[in-house]
Amino acid sequence: MITSLSIKNYALIEKLTIDFSKGFSTITGETGAGKSIILGAIGLVLGKRADLTSLKNKEEKCVIEAHFEISKYNLVPFFEANDLDFENETIIRREILPSGKSRAFINDSPVNLQELQDLSLFLIDIHSQQQTQELSEENVQFKIIDAIANNADIIVQYQSLLKEYKAEKSKLNALLKKQSESNKEQEYNTFLLNELVAAKLKSGEQEILEANFEQLNNVEIIKESVDKALAIANDEQLGVLNNLKEIKVSLQKIAPFSIEYQVLLERISSIAIEFDDISEELNRSSEKVICDPEQLDLISQKLQVIFNLQKKHQVSTVEELLNVQSSLENLVLELGNIEEEIEKLIIAINQKTIELDSFAHNISQNRAIAIPLLSEKLIVILATLGMPNVRFKIDVAATETYFLNGKDELRFLFSANKGTDFGLLKKVASGGEMSRIMLAVKAILAQYSKLPTLIFDEIDTGVSGEIAIRMGEIMKQMSHEMQIFAITHLPQIAAKGDAHFKVAKSTIGDDTLSELKLLKADERIVEIAQMLSGTTVSDSALNHAKALLN
Q1: Beta strand spans in 251-405 (E)
Q2: Other C-beta atoms lying within 10 Å of the C-beta of residue 330
Q3: Cα–Cα dist 461/435, whole Å
Q4: How many C-beta atoms surround the C-beta of residue 490 within 10 A?
Q5: Rounded distance, CA 309 to CA 197, Å?
Q6: CA 497 – CA 476 distance, rounded (Å)
Q7: How many helices (DSSP H) and strands (DSSP E) are in the chain?
Q8: 3-state class of 19 per DSSP?
């Protein structure tokens, strides 16, 4: 339960520290006095988003701190899972800096808003007028039934399995679509692949083929040129080799006379050796040059195949064609893998369908047992709230659709008076009836919930008199199980509280301040009397206030 709340520099509150006790506490105050500010501050502690408009003084930071006694609520696993220090009296602090940045702490450990919100689910339920209207929504009605049916754990298992089921279904649909598209392209891809495989391409072969083609295609001029070069080199009278030998002999005669001639001899000797080697190479090359029209034709055909493939696939090298071939091989192979993966997914999905159906059946069975119990309890409580002839008809029907909480659809029908037909709750229930039904629901859920604190924000809308007294008694009874706060405009409910707080607004100079104060016994009498008669308190109003308190 919440034991204290400290607020600094928030909205109309400059500084406030207030302690709370267990049991039933009521909060009253004129419209606009600041009751919503208190709720807003608690909301920030529970992880709601904040902005700079929350700061009273825009130059200073806003700090809201709440203390919670949580020793009896089995929250140690949550703290361990989130790597937080557990304390029986846990402190949550929220800071909003002038820069607009927000910080949050649990027992002085920094946390993000999601962690605050997750923890808040175990601490406080703030019931607003908007939630009363949400009672007519199917998902809220299911939550009520499932709480009584003790379906929480099984629904968690169902939702976990449903998440896996949907992921696999999505993957299967994507694969089936891909398979359908691949089937259309498969024949063409296979044709392209076979064409490339038949070409027997090798990396670097295009350059070799083009070189060989040039040689074979120009064999006559090559032969003629090589032979001519050999003739010039080897002619007995005028050949280059013979002339080099004569030059060498002449230099040998004068080499001893000068280093200059010795160097020239060495150079001409080197040229003679090199040219002799060239001559030998030309001779071998001449022997290799053979006219082979058949080989030329084969090379030409292979090059034409390569050129055609390059044009078809819009590439310029054999290496790129080999990459295209590899990609096509993967595409063709991938279709076979897709078929295998589809088969595996279908088996897995069928198995999950069986498990989901089993979970959904158990959820539905538990609901079928809980619904009569819920109707009975609602009727009993609502009879005390001035609705003696109320009836409920809650129908649950199984479907083939997997919803987030099972496979059921729900019709929550209601009749307030004898002789009237059943109708959907949201269509036939008045505002006052909805408030009473919601209170009855919360009273029933309090028996099943382990939640420490429940705050009612004007749940008494549309009721008065004796019914208000009964509503106060029900909240008082609920406070035996949990800490209850009621923000109310009705003196009948305010008088039922074990503690009574008043929110008041005051003006000091040009500044407006809001404060929350715990009323003493005599102050409480005056406050309830004012709620009965207005600002001018009569003796009868005071006596009535004392009677309500007693």
Answers
A1: 391-403
A2: 10
A3: 6
A4: 25
A5: 11
A6: 7
A7: 18, 15
A8: strand
pLDDT tens over the chain, length 550 residues: 999 999 998 888 888 899 999 999 999 988 777 788 888 899 899 988 887 777 888 888 999 999 999 988 888 988 999 899 999 999 999 998 888 888 999 999 999 999 999 998 889 988 877 777 778 888 889 989 999 999 989 999 999 999 999 999 999 998 888 777 766 677 777 777 788 888 888 887 778 777 766 666 666 777 777 777 777 777 766 678 777 887 888 888 888 888 888 898 889 888 888 888 888 888 777 766 666 667 667 777 777 878 888 888 888 888 888 888 888 778 776 666 778 888 999 999 999 999 999 999 999 999 999 999 999 999 999 998 888 999 999 999 999 999 999 999 998 898 988 888 888 887 888 888 888 888 898 888 888 877 889 998 888 777 778 888 999 999 999 998 899 999 998 999 999 999 999 988 888 777 778 888 899 999 999 999 998 888 788 888 899 999 988 8
- Which phi and psi angles does 367 have, rounded to 5°? -65, -40
What radius of gyration, in Å, describes the C-alpha atoms of the chain? 47
Superfamily name and number for 1-132+449-519: P-loop containing nucleotide triphosphate hydrolases (3.40.50.300)
Q: Pick the closest to residue 392 from 364, 428, 360, 446 (CA basis).
A: 428
DSSP one-letter code for 82: T
* 142's tokens: 């299911």
d(CA 547, CA 497): 14
Domain spans, the chain: 1-132+449-519, 178-337
Q: Cα separation of 548 and 550, whole Å?
A: 5
- Answer left, alpha or beta for residue 403, where phi above 0 means left and psi between -120 and 50 means alpha: beta
What 3-state DSSP class applies to 459? coil
